[in-house]
């Protein structure tokens, strides 16, 4: 099954939904699903929080955001890009974490 997982954050210790998304991605890949993650490269603390486990066989697409400088604008740009990701990418199931 092709799965599309969307959340602004991925991995990292500061954002619970980012940790959940990383755990979910690893679990789904280990069960043989084709997983694509659409996320940004930022968290609440720093822009260096993007972490991906070595050897993880999932496709990770990064959205462009302004980082933590202008949080509201970054959220809006992420949501707009997420809309296009959901529309253009091929998937059987989509999980959108909020």
Could you give a quick summary of the protein structure above?
The protein has 98 residues and is an alpha/beta fold.
List keywords for this structure.
98 residues, alpha/beta, 4-stranded parallel beta sheet, 2 helices
Q: How would you describe this structure to a colleague?
A:
A four-stranded parallel sheet has the order 3-2-1-4. The protein is globular and about 40 Å long. Helices cover 34% and strands 21% of the residues. It is α/β, with parallel strands linked by helices. It contains two helices and four strands.
Radius of gyration: 13 Å
β content, as a range? Answer: 15-25%
Unreliable stretches covering 5 or more consecutive residues: 45-50
For the largest sheet, list the strands in their spatial order: 3-2-1-4
In total, the number of strands is: 4
Separate helix tally: 2
Computed structural class: alpha/beta
- Helix fraction, binned, reads 25-40%
Report the sheet with the most strands, covering strand number, pairing sense and barrel closure.
Answer: 4 strands, parallel
Which descriptor suits the 3D outline? Answer: globular
Order of helices and strands: EHEEHE
Question: Ends: how far apart?
Answer: 23 Å
List the helices and strands and how they pair.
Layout (H helix, E strand, L loop, with lengths): L1 E5 L9 H15 L3 E7 L18 E5 L7 H18 L4 E4 L2
Parallel strand pairs: 1-2, 1-4, 2-3
């Amino acid at each position: 099954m092709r799965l599309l997982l969307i959340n602004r954050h991925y991995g990292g210790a500061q954002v619970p939904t980012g940790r959940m998304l990383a755990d979910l991605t690893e679990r789904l890949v280990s069960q043989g699903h084709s997983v694509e993650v659409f996320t940004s490269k930022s968290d609440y603390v720093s822009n260096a929080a993007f972490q991906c486990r070595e050897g993880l066989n999932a496709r990770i697409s990064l959205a462009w955001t302004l980082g933590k400088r202008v949080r509201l604008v970054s959220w809006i740009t992420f949501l707009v890009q997420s809309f296009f990701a959901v529309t253009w990418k091929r998937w059987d199931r989509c999980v959108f974490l909020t």
